[in-house]
Amino acid sequence: MTKAEFEALYHLEEDLWWFVGMRRISDALLGSLRKPGLRCLEAGCGAGFTTIDYTKRYGWQVFPCDLSADALAFSAERGIKQLVRGDLMGLPYADNSFDAVSCLDVLVMLEPDRARRALAECYRALKPGGFLLVRTAALELLRGYHSVVQAEKRRYTLPEVEGMLTEAGFARARGSYALSLLFPVVLLKRRVLEPLHLVKLENDVSPTAPWLDFLFRQTLLLEARMLAAGITLPVGASVVAVALKPA
């Protein structure tokens, strides 16, 4: 990601519908695991708002880490301390250091072999009995202009993510697709409207008209309620999973 992309993230990740909805989806999948006082490694902290969110809403002690100097600079602007520049291929932390690891929208930047190594590193850094929250963009079918802007390497299916988690040693707690109810809209945009230049080609992390932001936000909040009720969504633009390291 470029500095401009991190700047867009910095300004939008607190209130844009996608981020608000995805936070509620994470809440639903984590359930009772969201107990306060956990030591959490944020592997790929980006522009920093998730660190603040975990600290304020969950009561976690968060250790933010990112490979990008631009990401760390924007996180520092939020007043975040203990920032560490590190590569997910070799996390600069000892074995069994954390109760939780959060790895959000990082695997999409990695080819499968590197994604497997990253998940193995997350496993190594977790204490026995700890858990990983992982989210990534889903389905190569949905590759579009946003994928180019974000320098996506691979969009994964839920079975692929589940398989990599198993290979790393995790006992999967639960996984699902997300952005499922809006899947037809995303598919139409990526496979029809963008190729025919019927919509403006731009990063999806962009300001949205208030009425549309409200509509999309409510759709994701409905998905969060469905997941909280135990429903697994069969298709979507993202994959979200929670996996446990055996005690």
Plain-language structure description:
The protein is an alpha/beta fold and 247 residues long. The chain has one domain: Rossmann fold (3-Layer(aba) Sandwich). It contains 9 helices and 7 strands; from the N terminus they run H-H-E-H-E-H-E-E-H-E-H-H-E-H-H-E. It has a 7-stranded mixed sheet with strand order 3-2-1-4-5-7-6, with helices on both faces. Strand 2, helix 4 and strand 3 form a beta-alpha-beta unit. Helix 2 packs parallel to helix 9 and helix 5 packs across helix 7. The longest helix is centred in the last third of the chain and has 19 residues. The mean pLDDT is 95.
Helices, strands, pairings?
Blueprint: H1 3-12, H2 17-30, E1 39-43, H3 49-58, E2 61-66, H4 69-77, E3 84-85, E4 98-104, H5 112-125, E5 126-137, H6 145-149, H7 158-168, E6 171-178, H8 183-193, H9 210-228, E7 238-244
Parallel strand pairs: 1-2, 1-4, 2-3, 4-5
Antiparallel strand pairs: 5-7, 6-7
Helix pairs in contact: 1-4, 2-9, 5-7
Summarize the structure.
With 247 residues, the chain is α/β, with parallel strands linked by helices. 42% of the residues lie in helices and 19% in strands.
